[in-house]
Design brief:
alpha+beta, 221 residues, eight-stranded mixed sheet, 32% strand, Aminopeptidase
Length: 221
C-alpha cells in the first residue's frame, strides 16, 4: 500500500524470443522474473540484447567451442580443480563473508544486498563461488526460477587473482557454472546483457554463448 501512495514502480527483467507476439512477450514476463506472479499495471518496456549460454553438459564438448586461448587457460585451472586446490561452491544463501566480498570488489553497479536477500528467502538466488587457498577469488549471482537462470552479478578480486596467479579464475568459474547448470537441467541460461560495442565484457560472454536473445526491462505497478 505504501508503494502505491509513493508511486514507486517495480523494475524487472525477463527473456524473450524475437518471434513472440506482444501478448506472448507479456506472458513470458509473468512466467520468468515476476517471481511472485502478482497482477499489476504494465507501464513501459525497453529491450536489451543478452547472451544465451551453450547447452553442453560435458567439459570436453564445451571446451571445443571456445577459442584456443580460453581452452588453454581453463584446462590449466581444471588440473588444480581436480586436485581440489580450487573449490567451486554452489550455495543459495548469503553469508557475511560473501556480502563483504561483493561490496568491496564490485565494479560499476553496486550489488543490491537487500534484493539478493529477498531472492534468498524466496529460493530464487544461486551463488557460485571460486575459492583458492581458502580465499574467495570471484563469484557469480544468478536469478533462478524453474528451469531458467539469469546472471545478475559477476564479481572478482583482480588484484588477488594476479597475486595468486589464477588470472583466469573468472573464465573458469563461468565455464564450470555453465556445466553445472546444464547438468541441473536448466533450459535457459542467460549470461546477461550485451552492449554491442564489442568490449571485453561482450567478448567474454560471447565466448560462452550459443545465440542472442531479446531481454526486456519492465516498469510496472
Amino acid at each position: 500500500m505504501i508503494r502505491w501512495f509513493l508511486f514507486l514502480p517495480y523494475l524487472e527483467l525477463y527473456m524473450d524470443e524475437k518471434n513472440n507476439t506482444t501478448l506472448g512477450k507479456f506472458l513470458i514476463k509473468r512466467s520468468m522474473y515476476c517471481l511472485f506472479n502478482k497482477r499489476s499495471f504494465f507501464l513501459s518496456r525497453s529491450t536489451q540484447i543478452t547472451a544465451l549460454a551453450h547447452e553442453d553438459k560435458n567439459k570436453d564438448d564445451l571446451l571445443k567451442k571456445l577459442k584456443s586461448k580460453y581452452r588453454n587457460e581453463i584446462r590449466a585451472l581444471d588440473r588444480k580443480f581436480e586436485t581440489e586446490e580450487i573449490i567451486i561452491t554452489e550455495k543459495k544463501n548469503l553469508d557475511k563473508k560473501l556480502i563483504n566480498f561483493l561490496l568491496i570488489n564490485y565494479r560499476g553497479q553496486k550489488p543490491n544486498i537487500k534484493k539478493l536477500n529477498k531472492l534468498c528467502k524466496s529460493q530464487n538466488l544461486l551463488n557460485f563461488i571460486f575459492t583458492f587457498e581458502g580465499l574467495i577469488i570471484c563469484c557469480q549471482q544468478w536469478i533462478s526460477k524453474g528451469n531458467r537462470a539469469r546472471l545478475i552479478y559477476n564479481i572478482a578480486d583482480y588484484k588477488l587473482m594476479k597475486k595468486l596467479k589464477v588470472n583466469s579464475a573468472n573464465k573458469f568459474l563461468m565455464f564450470q557454472t555453465i556445466i553445472n547448470l546444464n547438468n541441473d537441467n536448466y533450459k535457459i541460461i542467460d549470461l546477461g546483457g550485451l552492449s554491442n560495442q564489442n568490449n571485453n565484457i561482450d567478448k567474454f560472454k560471447k565466448q560462452f554463448s550459443r545465440k542472442e536473445l531479446i531481454s526486456c526491462n519492465i516498469i510496472y505497478f
